[in-house]
Amino acid sequence: MASLKVYGKTYSTNVTRVLTTLAEKNVDDYQMVPIDLLTGANKTPEYLKLQPFGQIPAFQDGDFTLYESRAIARYISDKYEGQGTALSGNTEREKALVNQWLEVESQNYNPCAGKIVFECVFAQILAGRPTDEAVVKEQLEKLEKILDVYEARLTHHKYLAGDFFSLADLAHIPVTNNLINVAKKGELFSSRKHLNAWWEDISSRPSWQKVLQIIQAGQQQK
Amino acid sequence: MTIKIYGMPYSTCTARVLATLAEKEVEDYELVPVDLSVGAHKKPEFLKMQPFGMIPVLQDSDLTIYESRAMARYISDKFESQGTPLFGKTAKDKALVNQWLEVESQNYNPCVSSIVYQLVFAPMHGRQGDETVVKQQLEKLEKVLDIYEAHLSKNKYLAGEFFSLADLSHIPYTFYLVNMAKKGDGITSRKHVSAWWEDISSRASWKTVTAKMN
Question: What's the catalysed reaction (chain A) (predicted)?
Fold first, then answer.
């Protein structure tokens, strides 16, 4: 019986951020426990004991419970330091740059990209209303400026923190997949040479390909 | 002096970094002011360091790091052997610190910073604050603070019985919420949140930062 559990559903980019981290660290032995926002499973007293904000994912390692996908990813990266891809940088300097770009993802990229994806993909299902085009327009303008910075960075470095793939790149994958492939905003990336190359590279990694298969399998189960 | 912090003491994000330096008993650094009123943060020389045009920025010899939470982590790691241990002692401690750093970042800060922006920073720049936004964000904050109250009724600090970077990270914006925006009721009306706030905002490290704000 797996001592690692991931609570949530694979339609959540926060959940797939964790699954991708597990895959990069070659960790297969975990159990997915479905918690479907659409049925309110995230609001039951039992779930709120694990994640008092009622959000997915939650994570358990034996009797140790953790939430917030980026914190879970860091935990997995630390616990399985000796296997799979080194995700946090090897030197003090590399570590600092990984942390910097994790914050850029968290503070700058994800709020914009996440809002665009929500409006274009989830507003109807989750909030019962049509896309707010004004919000999409505003967020796209912000995101264009942010992606210009990324393009400049990636012109000189293969990955965000330097010449090595890290958790900082990984953290971007699930939302970017939704932005390009579901919300159909791929122009943002295809119009920027180095950004596009970076996206092609990180989204072709076996870890993400594996998670895409898990997502598809999840969509087939009802 | 190898460490330079580019920022302003009244900036909440700069304050987060200055508080971390103080907790780690680091005095040997230079605070380089960046005059936001003349757009110094949007000039080419600054954008070379911080391409998003925001303060603060840290320079340590030839390493440049931005994003205050990343800067705080860097300081915490570099000065691990001195001052307050900001990530606890064990792997589980560290994980819980990271969890509550994310809660601050994802759930607490968006509400609080929005309220502080509308009521303090917008007027400072000659703009009218949006009362509707303030009302909406205060409602969200109430729900978040209920969860903090329940948690802090069982734990002295966010990650457990030890002060950590997770608690510290909340201080600057909460200080502005309570003292400048005058919207501290949510904090002061909750017994354990209030006690936690009193405790962390009375720390010597935070006092050195507020002394620099004047």
Answer: RX + glutathione = an S-substituted glutathione + a halide anion + H(+)
Q: What is the pLDDT of residues B53-97, one digit of tens each?
A: 999 999 999 999 999 999 999 999 999 999 999 999 999 999 999
**B102–A92: do the CB atoms touch at under 8 Å?**
no
B93 contacts in A (CB within 8 Å)? none
With 0-12 / 13-18 / 19 or more C-beta atoms within 10 angstroms meaning exposed / middle / buried, residue A154 is buried
Q: What is the mean pLDDT of residues B158-168?
A: 98
Q: Which long-range contacts (CB under 8 A, 24 or more apart) does B60-63 make?
A: B60/B2, B60/B3, B60/B4, B61/B2, B63/A93, B63/A96
A157 touches chain B (CB under 8 A): no
HSE-up of A159 (CA within 13 Å, CB side)? 25
- Three-state DSSP class for residue B204: helix
A23 Cβ contact partners less than 8 Å away, ≥ 6 residues apart = A206, A207, A208, A210, A211
Please, are residues A160 and A194 in contact by the beta-carbon 8 Å criterion? no
> Measured between alpha carbons, how far is B155 from B128 in angstroms, rounded to an integer?
39
Q: At what angle do helices A206-220 and A167-177 cross, to 10 degrees?
A: 40
Helices (H), B153-190: 165-175, 185-188
C-alpha dist (Å) from residue B213 to A84, B41, B125, B155, B171: 46, 19, 18, 31, 14
What residues does A66 pair with on adjacent strands? A59
> Given an 8 Å threshold on Cβ–Cβ distance, is B52 in contact with A93?
no
**Residue A135 corresponds to which amino acid?**
V
Q: Select from B66, B74, B102 the Cβ nearest to the Cβ of A68.
A: B102
Q: Detail the DSSP E strand segments found in B71-167.
A: none
Please indicate if any CB of chain A lies within 8 Å of the CB of B77: yes
- pTM exceeds 0.95: yes
- For residues B210 and B214, give the distance between their C-alpha atoms in angstroms, rounded to a whole number: 7
- Backbone torsion region of residue A62, taken as left when φ is above 0, otherwise alpha when ψ lies between -120 and 50, otherwise beta: left
